[in-house]
TrEMBL record:
Keyword Repressor: no
Pfam families assigned to the protein according to its UniProt record, in alphabetical order: F-box-like
Domain of life assignment: Eukaryota
Domain (F-box) ranges: 10-56
UniProt entry keywords in alphabetical sequence: Ubl conjugation pathway
Protein name in the entry: F-box domain-containing protein
PROSITE patterns registered for this protein in UniProt: FBOX
Gene3D superfamilies, per the entry: 1.20.1280.50, Ribonuclease Inhibitor
Record's keyword annotation contains Ligase: no
Species this chain originates from: Xenopus laevis (African clawed frog)
InterPro entries: F-box-like_dom_sf, F-box_dom, Leu-rich_rpt_Cys-con_subtyp, LRR_dom_sf
Length: 434
């Protein structure tokens, strides 16, 4: 594009086909879209086109301040996802009635039993994330949730299980694909969890915060029940679990039984967060030996990652070591064990230095995504990373040692083929939902 074409008068820009303008607007931030929207009626209509907002989430901190024009605007955009942090029952009902297309709702500390009743008009709801269930009983939660049998994703955080019965009602959600149960006190009724896992045939993602479960209680959850008397109207058990992703939080469990590993053999991704027993090399060894399909391992905010590295599978494509100690020798051993690593996340980790980073192009030549948030990175090391020829995403946020000139030089060397992440909020070690 020539320099003169960049000075095209506004009237000529408006003569471009709508499809081209809409494509241009997809590259704008929400604030930039707002600026465009304020210029004229025509552009306001274009900016409100649903295609520009289909992946957007609206954050509501207080609903009472919005007027009818605001709700009309959101309706025209066909907003499907909202996050609510402060709302009354009356206001929540206003939101659900005004946004009938909602498919995803995330609710924070505003959650109370009566607020859950406001979900009822959302007949299209597929994803429900309740990030703080500490002020509502498990009976109230599940008595409302079972009305949404079209749910595919359910996350319950800081929930207290009074007994096993309310939890078992989850089996009515037969379309459930992803389930997160993060217990407030680290206790989840293992028999109830076993009961539901083997009665959800579509479940592929599971996240559990089970701090007080030992090896045998946790293993029981993944063993097919053989002593339940099946009632005439009861949902039958599946023969095998079909889980693809498993996340364990705050666990003190050092391993799993052989039968549990057998039921989990379909796993492709394992995440261990706030884990206490990574120094038990037999557990890490078992993960790699007994999970033959594993291509992703996440170790986040856990004990030092210095496992027995002999059995690391050559198929491993993604490794995340966030907020955890990992040394140069461990990174070198990992590179010798796997040649397929495409994603490496070392954000907020420590124990390694810049010299090993400079060797990444040789150690991990197939890297496509590299996350080094909060790492001490100099201009010299950044230039070396330009030799990762498959690299497409590089996170260098929270780095005080890189100048704008160094970043510009990297962009020129790589011809802008790498998307740089320069600004990102500080990682919170206590977050719950995945």
């Amino acid at each position: 594009m020539s320099h003169n074409s960049l000075k095209m008068p506004a009237i000529q820009w408006l003569q471009l086909p709508q499809e081209i303008l809409l494509d241009i607007f997809t590259y704008l931030s929400p604030s930039e879209k707002a600026n465009v929207r304020a210029t004229c009626t025509y552009l306001r209509t274009l900016v409100d086109h649903p295609s520009l907002w289909k992946n957007s989430t609206i954050l509501f901190r207080s609903i009472g301040i919005f007027n009818a024009k605001f709700w009309d605007m959101l309706q025209s955009r066909k907003i499907c996802s909202v996050e609510v942090t402060k709302v009354t029952l009356k206001q929540f009902k206003k939101m659900t009635l005004s946004l009938p297309d909602l498919t995803t709702v995330t609710m924070d500390s505003c959650l109370k039993g009566e607020i859950l009743q406001g979900l009822r008009p959302l007949v299209n709801l597929k994803r429900l994330h309740l990030t703080d269930c500490s002020h509502v009983s498990d009976h109230d939660i599940f008595s409302e949730i079972v009305n949404f049998q079209q749910l595919t994703h359910l996350s319950l955080c800081k929930v207290f299980f009074s007994n096993a019965l309310p939890l078992t009602s989850i089996v009515l959600l037969q379309n459930l694909y992803s389930l997160s149960l993060h217990s407030k006190d680290g206790i989840v009724p293992e028999r109830a969890l076993q009961y539901i896992l083997f009665r959800l045939p579509k479940l592929q993602e599971l996240s559990l915060a089970v701090g007080n479960m030992n090896k045998w209680k946790l293993s029981l959850c993944f063993n097919r029940p053989d002593n339940f008397i099946l009632a005439a109207d009861e949902i039958p058990c599946i023969q095998r679990l079909q889980l693809q992703k498993l996340e364990l939080l705050n666990s003190s469990c050092a391993s799993l039984s052989a039968n549990a590993f057998d039921q989990l053999s379909t796993l492709t991704s394992v995440c261990l967060r706030h884990y206490k027993y990574l120094q038990h090399e037999d557990f890490i060894e078992a993960i790699f030996i007994k999970l033959p399909n594993l291509v992703e391992l996440k170790v986040e905010w856990a004990a030092p990652f210095e496992p027995f590295l002999g059995p690391i599978t050559s198929k491993l494509e993604k490794l995340s070591v966030v907020g955890t100690k990992i040394c140069n020798a461990t990174l070198k051993c990992i590179s010798q064990s796997t040649s397929e690593l495409k994603c490496l996340n070392l954000s907020f980790s420590h124990g390694y230095d810049e010299e090993i980073i400079k060797r990444f192009p040789r150690l991990f030549p197939k890297l496509q995504n590299l996350y080094l948030s909060n790492a001490r990175l100099t201009e010299e090391a950044l230039v070396v990373l330009a030799n990762l020829y498959s690299l497409r995403v590089l996170d260098i946020s929270n780095n005080q040692h890189l100048t704008p000139e160094a970043i510009l030089a990297f962009k020129k060397i790589t011809c802008n083929r790498v998307s740089l992440i320069l600004n990102k909020p500080s990682e919170n070690a206590q977050y719950c939902c995945w």
